[in-house]
Amino acid sequence: MFLNEALKSILPEGKEFEILHLRSPSIECHPLIAKQTSSSDDSVTVKTQHLFVLFHNEKTIFGLEIYVYINLKAVNSSTQDGERVIFISKADTTGHADCKVNYRSVTKVLIEYILSLDPNSYLQKVIPKRFDYGKIDGTLITKKTSSIKALRILANRNLPSYSAEPKSQTQFYNSYRCRANLETKVCLFTRPAPQYLFPESSKNPNKRVIDGDRLLRWWLSILDDILLETFQEDTKARLRIPGENPTSIRRYLKDVKYGGWEVGDIFGTKHKDTAIYHIPLFPDDPKARFLRQLVEENRARKTILETFWIELQNRQEFKLSVTVSVIGIQGLTAVKSLQRPPPCDVILSSSRKEFNAIKRYVTGENYDTAAGAREAYLNVRDYLSVRRNQKMMTIVGQFTTGCKANDRDSSSQRTVITANTLQPRKKLKK
Amino acid sequence: MSDEAALSAALSDLADCEEDVEKAEEDIELYRLKKLAPLYLHRDEIIQKIPGFWRVVLSQHDEFADHIKASDFEYVDAIKSITVHWKTFQDYEIEFSFNAIEGKLKDQTIRKHFLLKDEQLTSEPVDIGVPATAERKSFVDWFNWTGVSNAKEFPDGGELAALFSEDIYPYCVKYYTEAQRDVEDEESAGSSSEGELILD
């Protein structure tokens, strides 16, 4: 699955777009779920961030932020077993597009693209959780090296007599291998907000801000399609709406096409289980914020899942009566050939600092007027050109009736969106 | 002495004392400048022999990047040297030497004067031979920044001046070496909101 192929099939015919697909370096992080015992184990969690930004007519129009975690169960054994957790963090539009774009399809195609990537592509040159600075060669510059010492090291390296073998940085980073087809979880927290990625964009009268109910249905229909087209048939699909009873939650599942949807979540089945040992800690996620609060209040070990979900809905960050939901998918993908992303598909940032610098060009503007959307585009374009000698990928849309398609009328578009490399085994709802 | 009179005298003494403290602090500032001036001068001479020094420093500096357009890096890369000449901390000039950019910028050295008075920083426009841009204010427009004009000026130009004089110039060596790290930082350098949960 190539990014440009996938996108042009759903972008309006004849219109030109540019896509930024930015990827952070992979980094070892804490386990997504707190461990019950402190016994040392050899599991490793690797975190990578993706940012997709779509531009049209030199303006930002859409963005999607996704975190991919590869959790390797036992790196010292030969099983290469683990799981892939895809956290869909934020999707947002600016309202500054000069043509109609089906953002539902764009979001779906980008998630499918992420699903089509070989998890091994995240496991090279992984930044370790902690460097053992004591063991790092004294001729290398790290954050522990003083300015003066760094200058002496640099001075030495530039001596005409300096002939030490070129230091391989790779020895300080880790590399792992895993099975290509890992069990995959897709996690999402839906909550209505005026803006997620583009500050002040809600003040743009052309941006459509939707309520919690419609947001939930929007995401549900995207994930429903992905389940049918990209996952194997025994895949779990779960929906939980904190504060709602199962009967009302089932109302939302009336129109889904995949047969495996149930009320619940993929984080733990027993109500009496301790929440902290089952709920993952994602960045900027209401569930994680609540977990942190429980720890502060010394209630973390006492709060069971049942209480967790009830209390979550009552947190101040949600307005009363607003619909928020937790959606989860767990299963194996039906993607035939998982791939390493072709170099043309992705801008691999050289460091997390660079990733954040480029991201800030996009998320640091004000989007109430088109000027901010244009400023973001120009900065991203110019940065890539001046600093990386790179260009964003240009895509000319080929979708013929897309311009008048309704976002939620998925039935009329389903045939067009099928991507080539995906071999769906459909389990249709009876 | 009545209680009131005693308090009055104490407050008056405190005012006198504060005047002396302020005077001492001014003296320390001037001493600092005097002590550092020859060292900075010597440092400027050494830096001239390190190719690309300012390019590295200014590319490393996130806050500086926030002030300029990405396209401005072309001008930033042409900076040969930066020097701050202080009369006092409130009255100083920043000197820039540029390499020529063909068709865009001529080889030149300019000084831009800044004066902090009554908590307001002002400056005079300096012509670097690049026509002012209309809408998107660029780094080259900063040289025309005055802090008092009603016309649209380079945004937060005073903050950028302070960034040069208080941070980039004094600590340029730190930024230079930070940019030369062989090994990238680990997770603990990330934001605390993403850190591991510590249970008891």
Structure explained in plain terms:
- The complex is a heterodimer of chains A (430) and B (200).
- Chain A contains ten helices and eleven strands.
- With 430 residues, chain A is an alpha+beta fold.
- Chain A has one domain (3-127, 175-270, 320-417).
- The longest helix of chain A has 19 residues, at 212-230.
- Chain A is globular.
- The two termini of chain A are 30 Å apart.
- Chain B is α+β, with helices and mostly antiparallel strands.
- The model of chain B has no long low-confidence stretch (mean pLDDT 91).
- In chain B, a hairpin with a 2-residue loop joins strand 3 (108-117) and strand 4.
- Helix content of chain B is 43%, strand content 16%.
Name its key features.
heterodimer; A: 430 residues; alpha+beta; eleven-stranded mixed sheet; 10 helices; globular; B: 200 residues; Arylsulfatase, C-terminal domain; four-stranded antiparallel sheet; 7 helices; 16% strand; NAP-like_sf (chain B)
Mean pLDDT of chain B: 91
Strand order of the largest sheet of chain B: 1-2-3-4
Kindly report the average pLDDT value of chain A: 88
Oligomer: heterodimer
CATH superfamily caption of the domain at 51-180 in chain B: Nucleosome assembly protein
Shape of chain B: extended
How far apart are the termini of chain B?
Answer: 59 Å
Helix content of chain A: 25-40%
**Whole-number count of domains of chain A:** 1
Task: State the CATH topology of the domain at 51-180 in chain B.
Answer: Arylsulfatase, C-terminal domain
Please tally the β strands of chain B and state the result: 4
Supply the CATH class of the domain at 51-180 in chain B: Alpha Beta
**Major beta sheet summary of chain B:** 4 strands, antiparallel
Biggest interface, CB < 8 A? A-B, 51 and 34 residues
Ends distance of chain A: 30 Å
Helical/strand content category of chain B:
alpha+beta
Proportion of residues in helical segments of chain B? 40-55%
Q: Provide the structure class of chain A.
A: alpha+beta
Series of secondary-structure elements of chain B, N-terminal to C-terminal:
HHHHEEEEHHH
Rg over C-alpha atoms of chain B, rounded to the nearest angstrom: 22 Å
